[in-house]
């Protein structure tokens, strides 16, 4: 019995490969697959060629005949269907991608692409391809240069002037005499002996007399047993490239350093008592014409100057420029209390600093000579730094929480150096006792022994020569004060007598009589006991130094757009076109893979 299969109706736009010759599809399948003598128990389905002329796919499934069990297709039949499906998918993928690229080339915003796509001449295509590649290369180099310039994070400083009422800074004053003569008998035995034996020694040292044969050796001390003396070989090793390894210790420096070390080894309470008191020194204080008093000053101890006193008040606001809107101070120096041979001059040391910051008179400030009126005109300078990545600047929160003091770069460096000395030398730097107050007690004595002094000297040198030991950058926002200083002789001899009467109101009768007896009524030595200090803002304009980026992000984007437009003629929308093209290509690639997987899945089902 013959089995005939009726040809299905063809969809619109489709045709069979056999229509033109009226071939039977069974015969077409036999000739293409190599299978002859098709049995009638085969179910044959024909997929016709599409409009693009793709080969038809013919599926043949054997129908069981007379109760015969169905069996799997032969490996040859399975391989035929699978190979054709993979080939079709690859062809379709290439065709789809080519179609997408061709459409883009017809209307591309990218200069040169339309000429490459439209030209039929291969030489023209080559020339335009080379030009496009060269333009893209130049654009990439230009963009790299722009990005490198941006990543350098260059900055510029803008200077501007603003007018406002200004907060008055803190003022710290120190008498340069560290120990009052009247208190020597209350000091330690070592200090008393040093002061008593100092007069002859200092005078001889100043004249260079220790090398002169006419002086006895008793007048020139033998320092071979002094524990503070460090052998020269140590300095040669510690300061290999410095003057410290060659020069000898100065006599002036040597005398005062030894005395200072003796004083720094004493308890702070005693040192405060032995030094000059603000109640005895301050004769007059006024701000903007309003009186201030000794109790408005706060006390701290300097390793170099002894007692120092700071005047600061948050309500000190300058609303008027000039002396009338500033601070006026008059001091009595108590020159009769100076130590001969140790105190080599007279006067006060003044530090002007921002309120709530820690002053360091040893390293900053100005010296004010006696018998003068010194006028300090100030101009406030505010600095605003950008910070990272344009440069380092310090955030102060952690520092202030840890030490309970306002951050300054000097304070940070001092604390860092003190921590280094404490940890390495097991002693403290006695020159800055106020640091021990800030950092808290460490139960350590000032460095005294030879080994401690060697360690202290080495740590100090390492700290000064190595800049990476501490993270002490400038504040992101800070204020400073530019100063212009002038002075004149003050007071007159007649006015000094009036000032003595003012002094006598604050001291005992014995002290007053001593002053009048020692200086007399016509001695200029009396004049040298007084200092007048005027501190004020020259004007209420403050200078603002503000850092700003030299090359900002908005400039970078603008230059990137200009560069891309210059070399390849693209705008932002043109870049979006390229991105959209890339997405389309990726979709076509992924779609081909999905079709392949689906085809393999169908083939697996059919084979079963």
From TrEMBL:
It is found in: Membrane. Keywords: Glycoprotein, Ion channel, Ion transport, Membrane, Sodium, Sodium channel, Sodium transport, Transmembrane, Transmembrane helix, Transport. Residues 68-85 have a biased composition (Basic and acidic residues). It is a multi-pass membrane protein. Pfam families: ASC. The chain crosses the membrane at residues 127-147, 564-587. Residues 1-34, 65-91 are annotated as: Disordered. GO terms for cellular component: plasma membrane. One of its GO terms (molecular function) is ligand-gated sodium channel activity. Belongs to the amiloride-sensitive sodium channel (TC 1.A.6) family. This is Uncharacterized protein. It comes from Lymnaea stagnalis.
């Amino acid at each position: 019995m013959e089995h005939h299969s009726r040809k299905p109706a063809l969809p619109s736009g489709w045709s069979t490969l056999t229509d033109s010759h009226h071939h039977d599809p069974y015969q077409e399948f036999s000739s293409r697959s190599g299978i002859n003598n098709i049995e009638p128990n085969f179910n044959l389905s024909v997929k016709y060629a599409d409009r693009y002329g793709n080969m038809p796919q013919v599926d043949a499934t054997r129908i069981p005949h007379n109760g015969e069990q169905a069996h799997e297709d032969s490996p040859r039949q399975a391989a035929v269907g699978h190979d054709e499906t993979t080939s079709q998918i690859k062809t379709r993928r290439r065709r789809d991608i080519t179609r997408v690229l061709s459409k883009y080339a017809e209307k591309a915003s990218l200069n040169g692409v339309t000429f490459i796509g439209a030209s039929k001449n291969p030489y023209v295509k080559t020339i335009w391809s080379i030009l496009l590649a060269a333009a893209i290369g130049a654009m990439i180099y230009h963009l790299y240069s722009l990005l490198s310039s941006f990543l350098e994070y260059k900055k510029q400083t803008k200077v501007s002037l603003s007018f406002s009422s200004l907060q008055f800074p803190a003022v710290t004053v120190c008498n340069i005499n560290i120990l009052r003569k009247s208190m020597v008998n209350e000091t330690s035995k070592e200090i008393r002996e040093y002061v008593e034996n100092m007069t002859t020694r200092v005078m001889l040292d100043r004249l260079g007399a220790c090398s002169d044969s006419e002086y006895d050796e008793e007048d020139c001390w033998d320092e071979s047993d002094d524990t503070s003396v460090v052998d020269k070989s140590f300095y040669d090793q510690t300061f290999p490239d410095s003057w410290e390894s060659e020069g000898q210790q100065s006599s002036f420096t040597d005398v005062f350093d030894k005395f200072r070390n003796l004083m720094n080894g004493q308890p702070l309470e005693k040192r405060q008592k032995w030094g000059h008191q603000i109640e005895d020194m301050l004769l007059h204080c006024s701000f903007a014409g309003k009186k201030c008093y000794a109790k408005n000053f706060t006390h701290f101890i300097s390793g170099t100057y002894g007692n120092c006193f700071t005047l600061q008040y948050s309500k000190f606001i300058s609303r008027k420029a000039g002396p009338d809107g500033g601070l006026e101070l008059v001091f009595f120096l108590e020159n009769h209390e100076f130590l001969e041979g140790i105190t080599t001059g007279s006067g006060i040391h003044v530090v002007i600093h921002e309120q709530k910051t820690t002053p360091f008179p040893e390293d900053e400030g100005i010296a004010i000579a006696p018998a003068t009126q010194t006028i300090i005109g100030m101009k406030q300078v505010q600095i605003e730094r950008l910070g990272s990545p344009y440069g380092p600047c310090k955030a102060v929160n952690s520092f202030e929480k840890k030490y309970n003091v306002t951050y300054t770069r000097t304070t940070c460096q001092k604390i860092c150096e003190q921590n280094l000395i404490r940890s390495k030398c097991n002693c403290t730097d006695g020159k800055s006792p106020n640091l021990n107050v800030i950092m808290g007690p460490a139960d350590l004595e000032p460095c005294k022994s030879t080994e401690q002094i060697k360690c202290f000297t080495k740590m100090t040198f390492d700290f000064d020569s190595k800049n990476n030991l501490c993270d002490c950058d400038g504040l992101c926002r800070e204020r400073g004060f530019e100063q212009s200083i002038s002075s004149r002789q003050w007071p007159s001899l007649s006015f000094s007598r009036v000032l003595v009467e003012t002094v006598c109101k604050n001291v005992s009768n014995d002290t007053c009589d001593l002053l009048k007896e020692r200086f007399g009524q016509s001695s200029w030595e009396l004049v040298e006991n007084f200092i007048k200090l005027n501190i004020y803002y020259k004007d209420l304009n403050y200078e603002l130094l503000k850092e700003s980026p030299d090359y900002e992000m908005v400039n970078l984007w603008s230059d990137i757009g200009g560069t891309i437009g210059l070399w390849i003629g693209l705008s932002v929308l043109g870049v979006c076109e390229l991105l959209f093209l890339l997405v389309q290509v990726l979709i076509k690639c992924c779609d081909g893979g999905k079709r392949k997987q689906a085809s393999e899945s169908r083939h697996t089902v059919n084979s079963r």
